[in-house]
From TrEMBL:
Keywords: Isomerase, tRNA processing
Gene that encodes the chain: PUS4
Enzyme class: isomerase
Lineage summary: Eukaryota, Fungi, Dikarya, Ascomycota, Pezizomycotina
Gene Ontology terms, MF aspect: RNA binding; tRNA pseudouridine(55) synthase activity
EC number per UniProt: 5.4.99.25
Entry GO terms, CC: nucleus
Reactions catalysed: a uridine in mRNA = a pseudouridine in mRNA
Species per Swiss-Prot/TrEMBL record: Saxophila tyrrhenica
Official protein name in the record: tRNA pseudouridine(55) synthase
Biased composition (Pro residues): 296-305, 443-454
InterPro entries in the record: PsdUridine_synth_cat_dom_sf, PsdUridine_synth_N, tRNA_psdUridine_synth_TruB
């Protein structure tokens, strides 16, 4: 038997807001590690398609498709459009596969409000590990350089952080989705090719940045990646990323880890069997931010602790900021190298972990668990949306049509009509044609005087 939902009277939506079904809007889910943001959407669609709560939306969309004309159906020829009907879901800003935390999702017409969350302020917690750098700036990449870390102290890092607050310039990592000459940066990196132009720095804003924990070498469980980049890839990376590696410690590191046959589950491999299997119970997230930041427990032989220091940072940043770049640049600022070991997005907009974010494990517990939680979140979001002033929002869609001022079609000049108060009102001439295209416009009127021109 499906879950029964209490009928809740939603407030009357303002004239400038979209008409939402109760199952449409914005909610957030706690993304677990080791899966992509796109996979989270597919998992949600898999649970939502047979649910009672989202049935009204699916019925409406199916009725709309059934009412399409023959010509409209002929246009629906792509493979994606021929797939079974799924709940329409999008996200408001992707998270790296290794990252966890708040992933904002839009359902139905709520997807039209996702740009508001892409550009909003976000809060993160990350762990920076010093002494090494990778091609992806994080712990799942390949080592491209090492540098001394014995001189790195808490005081030096605290002083270096002062230069990363406020309005700063930041160079995006080479493993990013930015395009250079029509090609994404990560495509250059994966092919081992040099970017044809230098990656330019971009202005970003760090509203707050603080160190919340300092970990001396040997006192933590964070580790450098085991895989070294190929010499050719190292050469390209050192040139693109302006690295100055001293090469010390590389041989010692290999000798320390020889004989350890097990590899980290987070390592980037093309033919890894772990990448095709769902995450185990140990990798599922919890509601605790501290547990989300903790390193994963791996069934492998005991290893020597990493001798380099690490620190945990908490920050609030604006859109376009790369936490990985901060970790990389912070290592260089203290005359060493650094990489991002963990990343948790703790807040995005009005959604915060532990408050109003759906836990990912609730999906497996069934609709009787996740259904009421999503319903409550969507209702609260719709109430806030209805209360927004008219000048703060402009709907992209209202019943399939926009309320923005209609522009005349190309080749159809504006036609003047007189109002009772003798003011000039311009009406698009396209509205003066009937359904067959016959011109129903009045006789030409004289050109407007200069005072009447808009």
């Amino acid at each position: 038997m499906g879950t029964r939902y209490a009928a809740t009277q939603l407030p009357t939506l303002a004239r400038n807001t979209m008409a939402y079904l109760p199952c449409e809007g914005i909610f957030a889910i706690h993304k677990p590690p080791s899966i992509t943001s796109a996979q989270v959407i597919r998992d949600c669609q898999s649970h939502f398609k047979s649910s009672t709560f989202f049935k009204p939306w699916l019925d409406r969309e199916q009725a709309r498709k059934d009412s399409e004309s023959h010509n409209q159906r002929q246009k629906r020829r792509s493979w994606k459009q021929r797939q079974p009907l799924q709940v329409k879901i999008g996200h408001g800003g992707t998270l790296d596969p290794m990252a966890t935390g708040v992933l904002v999702l839009g359902v139905g017409n709520g997807t039209k409000r996702l740009p508001d969350f892409i550009g909003c302020t976000k809060s993160y917690e990350t762990v920076v590990l010093f002494g090494a750098a990778t091609d992806s700036y994080d712990a799942v990449g390949k080592i491209i350089g090492r540098k001394g870390y014995e001189h790195v102290t808490r005081e030096k890092v605290e002083k270096a952080l002062e230069n990363f607050r406020g309005q700063i310039m930041q160079r995006p990592p080479i493993f990013s989705a930015l395009r250079v000459q029509g090609k994404r940066l990560y495509e250059y990196a994966r092919e081992g090719k040099e970017v044809p132009v230098e990656i330019q720095e971009r202005p970003v804003e760090v509203k707050s940045l603080e160190m919340v924990e300092w970990m001396e070498g040997g006192s933590h469980e964070y580790r450098w990646p085991e895989e070294e980049a190929e010499p050719e890839a190292k050469g390209v990376a050192e040139k693109v990323l302006h690295l100055e590696s001293d090469g010390q410690g590389a041989k010692r590191k290999r000798e320390e880890e020889v004989g350890n046959g097990d590899t980290e589950s987070s390592k980037r491999t093309k033919a890894s069997p772990e990448s095709t299997t769902p995450p185990t119970n140990e990798s599922k997230p919890t509601s605790s931010l501290e547990q989300a930041l903790a390193p994963p427990t791996l069934p492998q032989a005991p290893q020597e602790p990493c001798p380099a220091p690490a620190c945990r940072l908490r920050m609030s940043v604006t859109s376009g900021f790369y936490v990985r770049s901060l970790c990389h640049d912070l290592g260089a600022a203290v005359d060493s190298m650094g990489l991002m070991s963990t990343l948790v997005r703790s807040r995005q907009g009005e959604f915060s972990l532990g408050e109003n974010v759906l836990e990912y494990v609730d999906l497996e517990k069934g609709e009787e668990v996740w259904g009421p939680k999503i319903q409550e979140t969507l209702q609260e979001w719709q109430k806030r949306e209805a209360a927004r002033p008219a000048d703060e929002t402009e709907p992209a869609d209202l019943g399939g049509r926009s309320e923005r001022k209609q522009r005349p079609m190309k080749g159809h000049p504006r036609v003047e009509s007189a109002s009772p108060n003798k003011e000039k009102v311009f009406v698009p001439s396209s509205s003066l044609h009937d359904e067959r295209g016959v011109n129903r416009s009045p006789s030409p009127s004289p050109s407007p005087t200069p005072e009447a021109k808009s």
